[in-house]
């Protein structure tokens, strides 16, 4: 026998600023009924294999459904707020439960009371409303001494998949939002900051979208709306909280009082490169002196022109010069930089993902490094550096003799 079924959705309401907001910001640690509940560190779908009896029953009862651990946790949070069987679930409680559980979908919740049976009528209603769709589902139960059972069922149509998003970010940080649509079509991202107007951004399926503007502490409400045959449908609904202080800026290194020695810089850069590779579990590389003259010439020309580039006017690239100097050809992975010291130059390339990838080339076995000072007299000259990480698919190149050149 099934009692009254009560449905609701974790909806939002417009706040004073015009943007949607959830009643009660989620704290990092929330005290509830004598226990400490930690907030999930990230917002993500968490599909798991249904192991419990109720999970297996629910996923079999609702076709094309999957058990989501985050949605089940939200249902468990909600059932903990119901002191009596007839107490209603408020929209703010549902939004807070899904926020703490880190579930990103537009969740709906229903509750019912049975005499110990499964919540068949409630789940059948969910199944009927989700015909032809994929659905996330989560169920929580509470048993009473009189034999009755209180059920809370959470479900959400699965219109899109999403890469995990951090729950809390530092001020002035940015987050990456990437979705994969279940069906083809357009999607729009709406962001409601703690103050100010709602922003609208377009979303491209499978392409990461960087979102910034976290310049005010508080809750930023994210909504992704998909276009289904000209009808907008809410696919994702979650919050990101900006309440961490920005990372402290490291103090600037004092300016050098005398020009750096290019030869000393080359040796230091080589040793530091190998230490960096070993720290990442890679084999060290060996110096390849034959191409050192080419990297030094490239660095000298960069210093003379003041241009930091892989290809210089009238000079070409180090790879082109190497092909004319030696045979067989090598694979080149080049970094170039200009900085006051060798330490500054190394930090500059190591902090860049693309340049760091070259330094950590797994197939590379050798390196040629050339450093040169710019020709200036009115100030301390900068150090121009060229790294050539080298791979030799056909063996180490040898200099072509003058006769064959």
Spans of at least 5 consecutive residues with low confidence: 9-38
Structure class: alpha+beta
Number of helices: 9
Helix content: 10-25%
Spatial strand order of the main sheet: 1-9-11-10-8-7
Distance between the termini: 94 Å
How much β-strand is present in the residues? 25-35%
Strand count, sense and closure of the main sheet?
6 strands, mixed
Q: Give the C-alpha Rg.
A: 30 Å
User: What is the number of E strands?
Assistant: 27
Q: Shape, please?
A: elongated
> What is the average of the pLDDT values?
85
Walk me through the structure.
The chain has 405 residues and is α+β, with helices and mostly antiparallel strands. Helices cover 24% and strands 33% of the residues. The protein has a six-stranded mixed β-sheet with strand order 1-9-11-10-8-7, sandwiched between helices. A five-stranded mixed β-sheet has the order 14-21-20-17-18, with no helix packed on it. Strands 22-25-26-24 form a four-stranded mixed β-sheet. The N and C termini lie far apart (94 Å).
Key descriptive features of the protein:
six-stranded mixed beta sheet, 405 residues, alpha+beta, elongated, 9 helices
């Amino acid at each position: 026998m099934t009692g009254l079924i009560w449905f609701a959705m974790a909806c939002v309401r417009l706040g004073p600023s015009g943007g949607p907001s959830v009643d009660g910001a989620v704290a990092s640690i929330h005290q509830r009924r004598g226990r400490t509940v930690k907030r999930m560190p990230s917002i993500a779908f968490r599909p798991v294999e249904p192991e419990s009896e109720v999970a297996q029953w629910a996923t079999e009862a609702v076709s094309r459904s999957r058990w989501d651990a985050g949605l089940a946790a939200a249902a468990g949070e909600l059932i903990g707020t119901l002191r009596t069987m007839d107490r209603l679930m408020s929209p703010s409680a549902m939004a807070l439960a899904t926020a703490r559980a880190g579930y990103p979908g537009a969740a709906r919740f229903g509750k019912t009371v049975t005499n110990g049976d499964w919540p068949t009528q409630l789940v059948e209603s969910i199944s009927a409303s989700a015909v032809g769709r994929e659905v996330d589902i989560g169920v929580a139960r509470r048993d009473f001494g009189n034999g009755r059972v209180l059920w809370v069922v959470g479900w959400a149509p699965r219109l899109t998949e999403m890469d995990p998003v951090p729950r809390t970010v530092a001020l002035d940080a940015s987050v990456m939002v990437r979705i994969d649509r279940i069906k083809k079509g357009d999607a729009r991202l709406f962001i409601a900051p703690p103050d100010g107007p709602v922003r609208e951004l377009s979303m491209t399926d499978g392409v990461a979208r960087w979102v910034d503007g976290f310049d005010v502490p508080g809750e930023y409400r994210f909504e992704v709306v998909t276009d289904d045959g000209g009808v907008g449908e809410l696919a994702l609904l979650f919050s990101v909280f900006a309440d961490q202080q920005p990372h402290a800026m490291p103090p600037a290194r004092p300016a050098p009082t005398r020009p750096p020695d290019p030869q000393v810089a080359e040796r230091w850069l080589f040793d530091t490169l190998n230490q960096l590779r070993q720290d990442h579990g890679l084999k060290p590389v060996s110096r390849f002196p034959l191409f050192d003259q080419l990297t030094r010439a490239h660095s000298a020309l960069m210093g003379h022109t003041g241009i930091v580039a892989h290809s210089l006017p009238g000079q070409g690239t180090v790879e082109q010069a190497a092909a004319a100097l030696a045979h067989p050809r090598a694979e080149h992975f080049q970094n170039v930089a200009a900085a006051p010291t060798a330490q500054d130059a190394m930090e500059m390339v190591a902090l860049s993902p693309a340049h760091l990838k070259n330094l950590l080339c797994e197939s590379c076995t050798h390196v040629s490094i050339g450093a040169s000072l710019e020709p200036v007299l009115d100030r301390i000259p900068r150090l121009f550096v060229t790294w050539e990480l080298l791979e030799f698919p056909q063996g180490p190149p040898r200099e072509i003799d003058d006769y064959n050149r």
